[in-house]
Specification:
mainly beta; four-stranded mixed beta sheet; elongated
Length: 85
């Protein structure tokens, strides 16, 4: 029985188009073993879960905002940034 460990790899769309006052859902695809933990930045911890694969933003206020998804496990860290525009 062989367990293969792999450092995190983040796949995130480089740009997501959404209009002002619309809802947006950003998806962070993560590969790695052991399963990496996910975090989003920026993220309003009081209103959003910031440690899930999806970041759902209600009524987008700022266009051209950057959001970064970071994945970590004991083998490493990877991140990617998307522009909400």
């Amino acid at each position: 029985f062989l367990i293969i460990t792999v450092p995190p790899k983040v796949i995130l769309a480089p740009k997501v188009f959404v209009g002002r006052e619309q809802n947006a859902s950003l998806k962070c695809e993560v590969e790695g073993n052991p399963t990496p933990t996910i975090s989003w930045s920026p993220c309003d911890v009081g209103n959003l879960p910031c440690d899930k694969q999806y970041l759902n933003i209600s009524k987008v206020q700022a266009v051209h905002a950057n959001y970064t998804c970071t994945a970590k496990n004991y083998l490493g860290i990877d991140s990617a940034t998307t522009v909400l525009g």
